[in-house]
Design a protein that fits this description.
Radius of gyration: 20 Å
Mean pLDDT: 90
Low-confidence stretches: 1-22
Order of helices and strands: HH
Shape: elongated
Oligomer: single chain
Largest sheet: none
Number of strands: 0
Distance between the termini: 70 Å
Helix content: 10-25%
Strand content: under 5%
Length: 204
């Protein structure tokens, strides 16, 4: 009898491991496939790399842990969405709306994010190395502990954003609005380590 229950339990664990519903809702995946729209959907852990989802409505969708590398997300609506740990490297996000989304630990290296709206977004520990964020909106975003080496932030609104403990080495801040931004304990463009009272400018 004990052996039976152990085998049954093992089979149940295998079933759960293989069940597609554990990562994302199959119904939501079908909705996205047919319409290209899926607001409030569960798409966590899905592989959408290289897909063209331009203009899609993914408002408040759960894409945590999803693979969106190289995808085309131009003008996509992702405000209030969850993208924690998602792979968005080399992704096209021109004009996308990610206002108040969560992207903790997300990978956005080399992404084209010109004109993106990241207002009040949670981007703790995000990887933005080499990303093009020109003329974007990162006002009041939380970007602590992030990697922004060689990112292009020229003309970007960084008002009130929190960049504490982040690395901005080699990034381009030409014409960026940094009033009220928190740069404390961050590594600035020229490699300078900013002091604890660095608000709006980097103080040694």
């Amino acid at each position: 009898m004990t052996t039976f229950f152990l085998v049954a339990a093992g089979m149940a664990m295998v079933f759960l491991a293989l069940s597609p519903g554990i990562a994302a809702s199959p119904g939501d995946m079908e909705t996205l496939r047919k319409s290209g729209q899926c607001a409030r959907c569960d798409l966590s852990g899905v592989d959408l790399s290289g897909r063209d989802l331009s203009g899609a409505n993914l408002f408040q969708a759960d894409l945590s842990g999803a693979n969106l590398a190289g995808a085309r997300l131009t003008r996509v609506r992702l405000n209030l969405a969850r993208l924690d740990g998602a792979n968005l490297s080399q992704t096209q996000l021109v004009g996308a709306n990610l206002s108040r989304a969560t992207l903790t630990g997300a990978h956005l290296s080399g992404a084209n994010m010109r004109g993106i709206n990241l207002h009040a977004t949670d981007m703790r520990g995000v990887d933005l190395r080499g990303a093009d964020v020109r003329a974007g909106n990162l006002s009041y975003a939380v970007v602590t502990g992030a990697r922004l080496q060689n990112a292009n932030l020229s003309g970007t609104d960084l008002t009130g954003a929190d960049f504490s403990n982040s690395d901005l080495t080699g990034s381009d801040l030409t014409g960026a609005k940094i009033a009220g931004s928190d740069l404390s304990r961050s590594t600035y463009v020229d490699g300078t380590l900013c002091g604890d009272d660095s608000f709006g400018l980097c103080k040694k």
